From TrEMBL:
The keyword Membrane applies. InterPro entries: PGG_dom. GO terms for cellular component: membrane. The chain crosses the membrane at residues 39-60, 80-105, 126-147, 159-180. This is PGG domain-containing protein. Residues 33-146 form the PGG domain. It comes from the Eukaryota. It comes from Actinidia rufa.
Length: 199
């Protein structure tokens, strides 16, 4: 719209901004309800992941050496390093996701918030929570590797792969469509037609 149109008023005395606000009150209300429910659900998931991973990080697999060094028993093993890094990533990403969704929940949900702030927070929060879920699975698999006996360690990799694959399929089927719709809606310049007109 040309800038000089913003000062004109219609028969009711409303500017284009006033008319837009009045006609979109229902949309803002329904969007607020949907966004609140989504943020609450994701906050619960992020809090659960943070709690589980914090307990995991606190308990070192194998314990510590009895000498004065205080180093972990499995310090030099690759699986222990993978466990440590993945647990740390899962902890920080889940806490970050929790903070992001708390920001969404404490928003004023005004019309201007739906223009830039909230559309940026929700995809970023979903990205961080995806990272935390994946890192938690990697951390659990690496930590569980120490529990298996030598005769069962050959079977551990296929079992971990199947478990992670099933979770990945569920995430791709259920959550990725929402994620890509949010990204497309945020960065596309004009609304895209979903269905072609019948000729």
């Amino acid at each position: 719209m040309p800038p000089h149109f913003f000062i004109h008023r219609n028969k009711k005395g409303d500017t284009p901004c006033d008319a837009f606000t009045n006609t979109h009150k229902g949309l803002v209300k329904s969007s607020r309800k949907w966004l609140t429910n989504t943020a609450q659900s994701c906050s619960v998931v992020a809090a659960l992941i943070a709690g589980v991973v914090f307990a995991t990080v606190s308990a070192v697999p194998g314990g510590l050496k009895q000498d004065d060094s205080g180093q972990p028993v499995f310090d030099e093993k690759l699986s222990f390093n993978i466990f440590s890094i993945a647990a740390l990533v899962a902890l920080y990403s889940s806490v970050t996701a929790l903070v992001i969704f708390l920001v969404i929940l404490t928003s004023h949900y005004q019309q201007k918030d739906f223009h830039k702030g909230l559309p940026r927070c929700l995809p970023f929060g979903l990205t961080v929570i995806f990272v935390s879920i994946f890192a938690m699975l990697v951390s659990f698999s690496a930590g569980h590797f120490f529990v298996l006996k030598d005769s069962l360690k050959d079977m551990s990799l296929p079992v971990y792969t199947v478990t992670c694959f099933s979770v990945t399929i569920f995430v791709m089927a259920q959550l990725f469509p929402l994620y890509f719709d949010l990204i497309n809606a945020k960065y596309s310049k004009i609304p895209q037609r979903r269905q072609k007109r019948a000729t």
